[in-house]
Amino acid sequence: MAAWGGCGVNAASGEIADRDGRAPGGGRRRSLARLAAVQALYQIALNPGAEPEAAIREFIAHRLGREIDGELYGEADEKLFADIVRGTVGHRERLDETISAALSEEWPLRRLETILRLILEAGAYELAHRPDIPPRVTIAEYIAIAHAFFDGKEPGLANGVLHHLARALRGAEL
Question: Can you tell me the mean pLDDT for 24-41?
Fold first, then answer.
């Protein structure tokens, strides 16, 4: 298994896995698209002024489906990947308002680590703007990504916030 941002990609199956080697649920290509989207969003966050389209092109041309420095970047659903990146960046202000409403006063959005904020934003984007994806799938996928990056309480926080958002946005589907 090759490391990829604290995660691993199983060379045999191509599935993303967390540090313990567990693969998340859902389709492999969609799981990898979500992971790559969070990583592209992180790249954008670290480079103020970076354009989402440039990050999307760079990931599609040079990372997705490639082996780089011995690390396998599995094949991802490029359309889902690009939609999550574009949508999260394009709707960030509204997504952050929605996420902030789900957080406690002790843990405002600005206090969260960048990668956790991005996981929540991407998950919130899917819940709000992708009715074709069941909310339980979205929640499970982003919790798996949170587990890939964090060993502490962060995945539990992601679980709580995403479930809160799912109940508010798509409660009839839960």
Answer: 86
How high is the mean pLDDT of the chain? 87
CA 58 to chain centre: 18
**Per-residue pLDDT tens for 59-116?**
999 999 888 787 777 889 999 999 999 999 999 999 999 999 999 988 899 999 999 9
**What is the dihedral sign for C-alpha 43, 111, 131, 134?**
positive
- Residues near 68 by Cβ (< 8 Å), separated by ≥ 6? 62
Distance CA 17, CA 145 (A): 8
Topology (CATH level 3) of domain 2-173? N-utilizing Substance Protein B Homolog; Chain A (1.10.940)
The full 3-state SS of 136-161, as one line of letters, equals HHHHHHHHHHHHHHCCCCHHHHHHHH
**Measured between alpha carbons, how far is 169 from 102 in angstroms, rounded to an integer?**
12
Helix ranges (DSSP H) in the chain: 28-46, 52-62, 78-90, 92-102, 114-129, 135-149, 154-170
Asked whether the whole model's pTM tops 0.70, one would answer yes
